[in-house]
Automatic annotation (TrEMBL):
GO terms for molecular function: manganese ion binding; superoxide dismutase activity. The gene is SODM. This is Superoxide dismutase. Residues 118-221 form the Manganese/iron superoxide dismutase C-terminal domain. GO terms for cellular component: mitochondrial matrix. It comes from the Eukaryota. Its main location: mitochondrion. SUPFAM superfamilies: Fe,Mn superoxide dismutase (SOD), C-terminal domain, Fe,Mn superoxide dismutase (SOD), N-terminal domain. Residues 30-110 form the Manganese/iron superoxide dismutase N-terminal domain. Its cofactor is Mn(2+). Its EC number is 1.15.1.1. It is an enzyme of class 1 (oxidoreductase). Belongs to the iron/manganese superoxide dismutase family.
Amino acid sequence: MNMLCRVGQVRRCAAGLSLNIRQVAASRQKHTLPDLTYDYGALEPHINAEIMQLHHSKHHATYVNNLNVTEEKYQEALAKGDVTAQVALQPALKFNGGGHINHTIFWTNLTPNGGDEPQGELMEAIKRDFGSLQKMKEKMSAATVAVQGSGWGWLGYEKESGRLRIAACPNQDPLHGTTGLIPLLGIDVWEHAYYLQYKNVRPDYVKAIWNVINWENVSERLQTAKK
């Protein structure tokens, strides 16, 4: 009888632990798809409305949804002390977490009022580290076009040296988490970002996107990175 009581207690404890894990996962604040500050068609003719609608409401939304699911599974594995499950979930966390981070930056890097030039400290830093805005554009465009398969081209800030750097990341690898550079400006070269309009001519898309860059946002990111 005592043995049966102990077994019953263990089962109740296990059930309670499982409930607590689910409650913790449910109470965690979930990631959400950020709203755009402009209409899907606002970046035309450089990026058409159909691409923007699919890119934001479908592709980015999928990263957000999958990140929430993966984080919930990770929290459960963490609470159970299941290291094997935690390790197995790392690729999904990196991919979907990176996708959410990258796109959240990307939308703010774009504006219907682009086509101008950066001002102030940002322009000074660009001239110091690349010689001119045109040279920076050429270098970043080349690195971005050269991404094999899917990925991103980035202008980042290296805190140790106080310099601007250009880098490319495969897939949805987040710049800061994989290189240490703080992201200032990103160009998405996954095919879903341009194929419906530019087909397989990635260089034309990269050339066009400079017309809708939000330099004010890039400048604000630089100021924040330097703190």
